[in-house]
Amino acid sequence: MIHVLHPEGRKSSPHPKLCVIKKDQNEVSTSRLCCLSYDQAHIKFPIDYPYSPPTFRFLTKMWHPNIYENGDVCISILHPPVDDPQSGELPSERWNPTQNVRTILLSVISLLNEPNTFSPANVDASVMFRKWRDSKGKDKEYAEIIRKQVLATKAEAEKDGVKVPTTLAEYCIKTKVPSNDNSSDLLYDDLYDDDIDDEDEEEEDADCYDDDDSGNEES
């Protein structure tokens, strides 16, 4: 049973219910608010994470060039870090241990907004998307499927008690500008005080030497 929020997901998710972690700490269920829809997904982390990539699967029915019928996402960042010239991917585009939940979610959202039609996971969706794109929206078959899916996700959101935003302003998160960090100034002040103390000690030592020199004068 899902019961606790994932800390990284909390930072990258616009709604507190949109990213939760299961008891085994290796599986994360997420939901995405994008294009005014409410899409649920499942991320499973391997035992050797972060050295191996997690798997990302949408639980919501998705019609997209880079999503398989079963919901698996085809994206370079989730591919194992091996050198495979046949894939057409650069090693730098694949998974590496510096990636995290936030970068995964950002990459998937970017892919949803800008499909990669050169390496489709769903050929039919890719062809349909290209027709819609090349016709500049006149071919409405792709857009109509997406519209129906969005309406279906809104019904699911209502069941989960989530309010799907209807405007860009509602979708964006308002954040406060962080206050200036004074730690560097404090560090500078400490170092400055230390320098002053060192100078005072040097002056005191010099005075002592002057007193000792008086004994070397001729009587």
CATH topology: Ubiquitin Conjugating Enzyme
Described by the principal axes of the CA atoms, the overall outline is: globular
Mean pLDDT: 72
The Rg value, from CA coordinates, equals 29 Å
Kindly state the percentage of residues in helix.
25-40%
Look at the structure and give the CATH class.
Alpha Beta
Q: Judging by the overall fold, what is the CATH architecture? A: Roll
Order of strands, widest sheet: 1-2-3-4-5
- Please give the count of helices: 6
Main sheet record: 5 strands, antiparallel
- H/E element sequence: EHEEEEHHHHH
Instruction: Assign the structural class, choosing from mainly alpha, mainly beta, alpha/beta, alpha+beta, or little secondary structure.
Output: alpha+beta
Count the beta strands. 5
Alpha-carbon distance between the two ends: 97 Å
Low-pLDDT residue intervals, each spanning 5 or more residues: 1-25, 28-35
Q: What's the number of structural domains? A: 1
Q: By CATH's scheme, which homologous superfamily applies?
A: Ubiquitin Conjugating Enzyme
- Beta fraction: 5-15%
Organism: Apteryx owenii (Little spotted kiwi)
Keywords: ATP-binding, Nucleotide-binding, Transferase, Ubl conjugation pathway
Domain UBC core: 1-155
GO molecular function: ATP binding; transferase activity
Protein described:
- With 219 residues, the chain is α+β, with helices and mostly antiparallel strands.
- It has one domain: Ubiquitin Conjugating Enzyme (Roll).
- Helix content is 39%, strand content 11%.
- The chain is built from six helices and five strands; from the N terminus they run βαββββααααα.
- It has a five-stranded antiparallel β-sheet.
- Mean pLDDT is 72; it is low at 1-25 and 28-35.
